[in-house]
Structure to design on (151 residues):
């Protein structure tokens, strides 16, 4: 799968004490237009797996081209992720990463057990777009959209 290029997101929610939690995710994909559904999958070994498996809402923060440090931060074990980046709570009480290229706030539509991962399908309830270029990820390296991409 490392040969397949993707964008990078940080998926966030809050725990039972309203503390923010989140992790770097590139399994994000579009599912349905009507209703507007997206999916991502979480490894059952992730420390916050139990919380995400039962959460009723989550936010998908699509990282911008200059946010490779945020990608690494939210993939590194044992770091205080939210003390080391700028973020705020949305009206839906979901953690939003500052400077993200876009944000999809979702309510959990369905969860599907799939091997050592759980697939979370979300129904999009709010969208924000900064119109900035996204961060790209391929073979463990980061990239940006090259200028000629749109020609
Ligand atoms: C580019 C990239 C994409 C990732 N995508 C996923 C993913 O889709 N699902 C997942 O469970 N983990 C993914 N990870 C790994 C998690 O971010 C990582 O295991 C998690 O942050 C560990 O959290 P923990 O310290 O709470 O266990 C990805 C990591 C990177 C660097």
């Amino acid at each position: 799968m490392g040969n397949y290029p993707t964008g990078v997101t940080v998926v966030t929610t809050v725990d039972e004490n309203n503390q923010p939690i989140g992790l770097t995710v590139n399994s994000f994909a579009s599912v349905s237009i009507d209703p507007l559904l997206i999916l991502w999958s979480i490894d059952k070994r992730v420390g916050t797996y139990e919380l995400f498996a039962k959460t009723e809402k989550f936010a998908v923060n699509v990282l911008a081209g200059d946010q490779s440090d945020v990608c690494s931060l939210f993939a590194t074990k044992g770091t205080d992720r939210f003390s080391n980046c700028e973020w705020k709570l949305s009206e839906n009480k979901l953690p939003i990463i500052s400077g993200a290229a876009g944000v999809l706030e979702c309510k959990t539509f369905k969860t599907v057990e799939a091997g050592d991962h759980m697939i979370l399908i979300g129904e999009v309830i709010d969208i924000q777009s900064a119109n900035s270029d996204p961060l790209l990820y391929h073979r463990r390296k980061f990239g940006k959209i090259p200028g000629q991409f749109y020609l």
